[in-house]
Specification:
Elements: H1 11-67, E1 74-77, E2 101-106, E3 114-115, E4 131-139, E5 153-162, H2 173-178, E6 182-183, E7 204-217, E8 225-227, E9 231-233, E10 238-242, E11 266-268, E12 280-281, E13 285-287, E14 302-303, E15 323-329, E16 332-335, E17 343-352, E18 357-361, E19 371-376, E20 380-382, E21 387-390, E22 395-400, E23 404-407, E24 411-413, E25 421-425, E26 432-436, E27 440-454, E28 459-471, E29 476-480, E30 492-503
Parallel strand pairs: 8-11, 8-28, 9-28, 10-12, 10-29, 11-13, 13-14, 15-17, 16-18, 17-19, 17-20, 18-21, 19-22, 20-23, 21-24, 22-25, 23-26, 25-27, 26-27, 27-28, 28-29
Antiparallel strand pairs: 1-2, 2-4, 3-4, 4-5, 5-7, 6-7, 7-30
C-alpha cells in the first residue's frame, strides 16, 4: 500500500508572515534603540555646550571686572533675574554695579555667545546644535567688603544650547537624571514655555554657574605671612590680626586680644614639612604641596592651590648720595631726610651691643615727611640691652645683605605702625632672621630667601615674606591689616575666584536654591 503526504493549506504563508513580523520587530527595535541613542547623544552634546556658554559668560564678567571695561553691558536697578531678561539698549553700564543694581549682558539664539562652524566651507556645518547663547549678571548680592573696604561681587551666568533631537526623554531614568538640565517643553527655572525665551526652538539645555569674586589688593602685604616653603609652630604661639588705625580693632593703636581680628592669613608656595601642631591661626591657610599637619585650630578656610614663589628683592645699589658709616658698633644718632630726598646711610655691618643706643630722629615737620634708608651689606645685630629708638614720625627702610638678629626690646618703633619700619633682606639661600626675647617687634620683613624664627614671649606685629617661618614660645604674630592699603589708597589690583558652583535649581519641580 502506498501512503501519500499532503501539506496543510496556508502553512507556508503563515510561516512567512511570522518570519516577516519577527524581522520587522527586530528592525523596529533596532531603529528605536538607535533613535534613542542619537537623541541622547544630541542632548548630551547640548548639555556640555550649555556649560561652555555659562563659562564663557563668567569669562566676560571677570574680564570686565579686571579691566573696568563694560562695553556691551547694561546697568539695571533691582534684583538679579532668575530667567533670561529682555535685552535693553539703556542704560549702559559704566562701572561696577552698586548695591541694589546689577550689570547684565545678554545674547540670544539669533545673536549667540558662541557660533559652532563646520569643518570646511563657508556655511556653518556643525553636527547638531549651531549656536550657544545665554546671559550673565554681576551684582554685590548679600556680600560685604574686605578689611580695606573693597567690595566682593557675585557673577551668575546661564548658558543655553538648543538640541536638534525630539521632544523625548531617554528610556534610561539614570541617564535622564544625569542630564536634568534638559528642558523639552518648559524652562526648568522659570516654568514657562521654551518658545517664549529668546526665540529658541525646543528642546534645549540650560546650565547656570554662580561665582564669587574676591578683590585682590595691589599691596605686597595683602596677607600676614607669605612663604616659599614651610611654616612650623609650637609652644602656644598663635597668629591673628588687628588694625592700628581702627579703634574698634586695636587699643591706642596696639594689638588687643579683646579686639582680635580673623585676617591672619598664611600662604605657602611649598608646604612640605609644615606643621602647626594645633596652634591657633585666626585666619585662612592656603598652600601648594602636601597637606599641612595638625590644622585643627585654623579658624579660617584651608585651601589649595596657594600662591607662587615670593618675588625676589635686591640691594639698593647706591653709588653716591649716602653717608658711609663703615663697620659700626656703639651709640649714635642719625637723622631722617624728607620724603622726596630721604637720608641714606651705608654700613658694612651694624651692631647695637648691650648698653648701646642708635637714635633715628626726624627733624622734618609733618607726620609723612621724615624718611631714612639704611643699607647694611653685612649683618644687622641688636642684642642684650642695646636699643634702636625710631622717632614716631620717621619711615625707615633697612636693606640687609646677611643675617638679621633683633633680640629683647631692641628695636623701638615708637609710631606703633608696621608701615613705618621695613626690613628688606636680599641675602642668599640660608640667610636668617631671628627675633627673640620678651619685646614687641613692629614692622615688616621682606626677605624671600631667609629662614625666619620668632621665639620667646614677645610678639611680632606686621607682616612677613620669607622662605620659611618657625614660631615658638608663647608669643604671637599679629598681622597689621592697615598694611594692605597702598599708602592712602585701597585700590584693587584684580579679582580672583573665591568660590564656584553650578546652580541646579528646578522651579518646575520645586527645587529652588
Amino acid at each position: 500500500m502506498k501512503i501519500l503526504s499532503k501539506a496543510q493549506p496556508g502553512s507556508v504563508l503563515i510561516t512567512t508572515l511570522l518570519t516577516i513580523t519577527i524581522l520587522t520587530l527586530i528592525c523596529a527595535t533596532s531603529l528605536y534603540v538607535a533613535s534613542q541613542n542619537a537623541n541622547a547623544g544630541m542632548q548630551t552634546a547640548s548639555w556640555q555646550q550649555a556649560l561652555t556658554g555659562a563659562e564663557s559668560g563668567v569669562d566676560q564678567a571677570i574680564r570686565a571686572l579686571n579691566t573696568s571695561s563694560w562695553s556691551g553691558w547694561y546697568n539695571i536697578t533691582g534684583t538679579v533675574p532668575t530667567a533670561q531678561p529682555t535685552p535693553s539698549a539703556t542704560p549702559a553700564a559704566t562701572g561696577t554695579p552698586a548695591s541694589g543694581h546689577y550689570n547684565y549682558r545678554v545674547t540670544t539664539s539669533t545673536s549667540p555667545t558662541v557660533t559652532l562652524s563646520g569643518i570646511s566651507g563657508t556655511t556653518p556645518q556643525p553636527e547638531g546644535n549651531a549656536a550657544i547663547w545665554g546671559w550673565v549678571t554681576v551684582d554685590t548680592g548679600t556680600m560685604g567688603v574686605d578689611s580695606n573696604g573693597n567690595q566682593w561681587y557675585r557673577i551668575r551666568s546661564t548658558g543655553v544650547a538648543g538640541t536638534n533631537g525630539l521632544f523625548r526623554a531617554s528610556n534610561n531614568k539614570l541617564d535622564n537624571d544625569l542630564r536634568n538640565t534638559i528642558s523639552l517643553r518648559f524652562n526648568r527655572k522659570s516654568n514657562t514655555a521654551i518658545g517664549n525665551l529668546g526665540g529658541s526652538a525646543p528642546p534645549q539645555a540650560t546650565r547656570s554657574i554662580e561665582v564669587i569674586m574676591q578683590p585682590l589688593t595691589t599691596s605686597i602685604w595683602a596677607r600676614g605671612i607669605t612663604l616659599a616653603n614651610a611654616i612650623t609652630m609650637s609652644g602656644g604661639a598663635f597668629i591673628d590680626s588687628f588694625d592700628p588705625t581702627n579703634a574698634f580693632k586695636s587699643t591706642n593703636g596696639l594689638w588687643d586680644v579683646t579686639k582680635r581680628q580673623n585676617h591672619g592669613e598664611i600662604a605657602m608656595s611649598d608646604s612640605t614639612g609644615s606643621d602647626l601642631k594645633g596652634s591657633y591661626v585666626y585666619g585662612n591657610l592656603s598652600y601648594n604641596g602636601p597637606a599641612v599637619k595638625n590644622t585643627s585650630n585654623v579658624a579660617g578656610t584651608i585651601s589649595t592651590p596657594g600662591p607662587g614663589s615670593p618675588p625676589a628683592v635686591s640691594s639698593p645699589g647706591w653709588t653716591s648720595g649716602y653717608t658711609n658709616k663703615g663697620t659700626w658698633s656703639g651709640t649714635d644718632t642719625i637723622a631722617a631726610g624728607n620724603k622726596s630726598n630721604p637720608a641714606r646711610y651705608k654700613y658694612n655691618s651694624l651692631t647695637v651691643p648691650g648698653g648701646g643706643v642708635l637714635t633715628i630722629s626726624g627733624p622734618n615737620n609733618g607726620t609723612d615727611n621724615n624718611y631714612i634708608e639704611i643699607w647694611v651689606t653685612g649683618k644687622f645685630t641688636t642684642s642684650g640691652s642695646g636699643v634702636i629708638n625710631q622717632d614716631p614720625k620717621v619711615h625707615t627702610t633697612v636693606y640687609v645683605g646677611d643675617d638679621i638678629t633683633v633680640s629683647g626690646t631692641s628695636f623701638n618703633n615708637q609710631s606703633g605702625l608696621a608701615t613705618n619700619l621695613n626690613f628688606i633682606g636680599y641675602g642668599g639661600s640660608g640667610s636668617k632672621v631671628t627675633t627673640s626675647g620678651s619685646g614687641n617687634f613692629i614692622g615688616t620683613i621682606n626677605a624671600p630667601n631667609y629662614d625666619v624664627t620668632i621665639s620667646g614671649g614677645g610678639s611680632f606685629s606686621g607682616a612677613i615674606i620669607a622662605n620659611s617661618l618657625n614660631i615658638s614660645g608663647s608669643g604671637g604674630f599679629h598681622y597689621d591689616e592697615s598694611l594692605a592699603v597702598n599708602g592712602s589708597s585701597t585700590a584693587v589690583g584684580k579679582y580672583a575666584f573665591a568660590s564656584w558652583f553650578e546652580d541646579n535649581s528646578d522651579k518646575a519641580r520645586g527645587f529652588i536654591y
